[in-house]
């Protein structure tokens, strides 16, 4: 099948998964290229969340796509995956308030409103509480779209197959969508229409920069995560309905939805509003199984399934599922630590 302009060999997509193995300057090094190349038999790889500007960096060890050095490193990742027969898009992620000056190189933490997220960031100095962020001015908020677009151009220049815009899981774009983290009174806050506006502007800018057929969007409607709360079901339907209508008009390559009830009313309502390729993932509660994946394809209207932990632990997941083989078990204690262990050492069949 094709996902937008990207031909894919099967419907199993590697879900974006932060692994924190990049070099200190944000370059994805050889080990990152090796990791993704090992997983090239997935229909499409979506990379870990990657920062488009230094101020948007959410983690030490996270890769970026800000400058020529990052771009050259991503070009090596793209070649490694392509040489192994795979396709890869980079997930562009602005952390918003979920970071700390000890991670952004001293740059101020930015968010829709000056409301701190609960919890702590892991800085060089150890765990630090998330600070009260600076509320972006209207002009600065309008500039975010261009930041994503510039990183998207670098992605394509590096030979990657496209980008996924990360508007899920409590990071900046989700912070704009959710009423509790967005208490603005300008054109980016208040009504569902206004809260969806920044994501729509990012979609348009990135689509214009590299063509919408190479752009996906990830959302997690109603996912109360990392302090971002969407507790009013009617508001969720209106906010995400408005946004998904825009995705439809923009002709994006795909819409990716993370939700623990893919067959339920919310996801099915959104599915109805979007005729393009839909990627589903049923959330963090349990590791996606082959049976979950089939259910999403057969009963929830998915065209492809995003698979996280099983793909981390099984470089040859597609073959194992195809032939009904036993799977390696993911080791969560190695998810976010540096080095090869739990990264490039999961055995193939
Ligand atoms: C280690 C780890 C890192 C993750 N990093 C990201 C990320 O960078 N971007 C994102 O959108 N989701 C991220 N997720 C969520 C996954 O994409 C996926 O939705 C989640 O793991 C549930 O799917 P699964 O049951 O197949 O693992 C991450 C999940 C895990 C386990």
Q: What does this molecule look like?
A:
By secondary structure, the protein is an alpha/beta fold. The chain has one domain (2-334): Alpha-Beta Barrel (TIM Barrel). 34% of the residues lie in helices and 16% in strands. Strands 3-4-5-10-11-12-13-14 form an 8-stranded parallel barrel, surrounded by 4 helices. The site of flavin mononucleotide has 22 residues, from strand 4 and helix 9.
Brief sketch in words of this structure:
The protein has ten helices and 14 strands. With 349 residues, it is an alpha/beta fold. A hairpin with a 2-residue loop joins strand 7 (120-123) and strand 8.
Structural features:
TIM Barrel, 349 residues, two-stranded antiparallel ribbon, single chain, 10 helices, alpha/beta, eight-stranded parallel beta barrel, 34% helix, binds flavin mononucleotide
**Top-tier CATH class:** Alpha Beta
Small molecules held by this entry: flavin mononucleotide
- The total count of helices amounts to 10
Order of helices and strands: EEEHEHEEEEEHEHHEHEHEHEHH
- Rg is 19 Å
User: In oligomeric terms, what are we looking at?
Assistant: single chain
Q: Sum up the overall morphology in one term.
A: globular
Overall structural domain count: 1
Low-confidence stretches: none
CATH architecture: Alpha-Beta Barrel
Give the rounded overall mean pLDDT: 98
β-strand number = 14
Secondary structural class? alpha/beta
Largest sheet: 8 strands, parallel, barrel
Termini separation: 26 Å
CATH topology: TIM Barrel
């Amino acid at each position: 099948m094709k996902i937008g302009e990207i031909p894919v060999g099967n419907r199993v997509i590697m879900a974006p998964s932060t692994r924190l193995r990049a070099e200190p300057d944000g370059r994805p090094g050889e080990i990152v290229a090796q990791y993704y190349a090992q997983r090239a038999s997935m229909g499409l790889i979506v990379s870990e969340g990657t920062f488009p500007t230094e101020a948007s960096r959410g983690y030490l060890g996270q890769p970026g796509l800000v400058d020529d050095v990052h771009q050259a490193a991503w070009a090596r990742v793209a070649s490694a995956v392509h040489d192994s027969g795979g396709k890869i898009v980079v997930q562009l992620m602005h952390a918003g308030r979920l970071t700390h000056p000890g991670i952004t190189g001293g740059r101020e933490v930015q968010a829709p409103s000056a409301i701190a997220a609960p919890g702590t960031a892991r800085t060089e100095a150890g765990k630090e509480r998330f600070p009260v962020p600076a509320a972006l001015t209207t002009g600065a908020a309008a500039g975010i779209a261009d930041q994503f677009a510039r990183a998207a151009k670098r992605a394509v220049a590096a030979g990657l197959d496209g980008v996924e815009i990360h508007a899920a899981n409590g990071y900046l774009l989700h912070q704009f969508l959710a009423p509790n983290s967005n208490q603005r009174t300008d054109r980016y806050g208040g009504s569902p229409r206004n809260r969806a506006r920044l994501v729509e502007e990012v979609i348009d800018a990135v689509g214009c920069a590299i063509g919408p057929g190479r752009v996906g969007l990830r959302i997690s409607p109603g996912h109360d995560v990392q302090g971002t709360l969407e507790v009013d079901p009617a508001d969720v339907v209106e906010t995400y309905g408005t946004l998904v209508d825009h995705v439809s008009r923009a002709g994006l390559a795909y819409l990716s939805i993370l939700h623990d009830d893919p067959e339920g009313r919310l996801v099915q309502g959104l599915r109805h509003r979007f005729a393009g390729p839909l990627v589903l993932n049923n959330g963090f509660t349990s590791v996606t199984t082959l049976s979950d994946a089939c259910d999403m394809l057969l009963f929830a209207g998915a065209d492809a399934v995003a698979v996280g932990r099983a793909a981390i632990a099984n470089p040859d997941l597609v073959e194992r599922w195809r032939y009904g083989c036993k799977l390696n078990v993911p080791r969560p204690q190695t998810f976010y630590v540096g080095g090869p262990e739990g990264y490039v050492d999961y055995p193939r069949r």
